[in-house]
Amino acid sequence: MIKIFRSLGGYVELSQAEKGCWVNVNSPAKDEIITLINDFLIPADVIQDILDADERPRIEYDDDWSLVILRIPVASPNNGVPFYTVPLGIFMTNDYTVTMCSASNEVLPSTEPSLYREHYQKAADVLNFILKLSLRSANIYLKYLKQINQQTAIIEKDLEKSIRNKELTKLLRMEKCLVYFITSLRSNEIVLAKLKNSRKNPISEINEDLFEDTLIENKQAIDMAQIYSDIQSGMMDAFASVISNNLNVVMKQLTSISIILMIPTLIASLYGMNVPNYMEHFKWAFPAVIFSSGLMSYIGVLMFRRKKWF
Length: 310
Fold this sequence. Notes:
This protein is of the alpha+beta class. 56% of the residues lie in helices and 14% in strands.
C-alpha cells in the first residue's frame, strides 16, 4: 500500500507526489515495488534491504539520497511468537521522503499515519521526523514489554501446577520476543548515536531535546527488556525443575495407589486358586476374605498418609 502525504507526519493525502511530500509504503506488492523503482527512483537493492526481515539497522549515504533503517516492534499473535521486529526504512532525497515497512505496525499505521495528536503540526525537518519515529517506536517497545510481562505472569501461574511442556514452550516464546527486542533496541541506539554525531545533519535546539528524549526512552526499553530476559532465564530453569518435581509427585501417587490395590489383588489371587485352603466349607469365608482385604488396604493407606506419600 502506497500513500502520499503533503508533509512529513502526514495528514493531507495527495493523489500524486510533489516536492517535499512524504510517501508511506506498507507491505508493498510487486507492482508497487516497480512503481517505487521507476517513479521514485529508489534503487532495487535498497528496497530489497528494507523488506529483508533480517536486515540490521544502519545509516547509508549516497550522492543523491540517504537511508536510515531502524527496527520496530510488530505484534503477531498468530506467528508463533506474539511479538517480533521488522526493518523500517526511511529513504530521503531533496524532493521527497519515503518510509517503507514489510508489515503492518503501530509505529506508522496505514489507517492513521500522523505521528502527532494535533494533525496540523508539522515536522520541523527530516531529522525531526526520524527522531519522532524513533521515539514512537521506543514507546511501542515499552507497551509490548508490559504486555509480555503480563502474559508471563499468567504463564507462571499455570506452570506451578503443570506437568506438561506446553506452558514452558509459551515461556520460551516470550524469551525469544525479548531477545528480538534487546538486539533491535541496541542496534537502534547505535543508529541514533551516529545520527547525533553526523556532520550531514546539523542539530537544532528542538532536535537536541528530542534526541535526549528518544535516547532516554530507548535506553529504558533496553533496560526493561534485559531485566525481563534475565528473570525469564532463571525462571525457565526453575520451572523446568518444578515440572519435573510435579511429575515425580504424580508418579509417587500412582505408585502408592498401585501398591494399595495390589493387597486385595494378592489376597484374592491366593484364595482363588484351585487348591485346598481350609476355608472351602466355612460359611463366612468370602466376607472374611473381602473384609481382610479391605482392612489391610486401609492400614496401607494410613501408613502411606503418615509418611506423607499420599
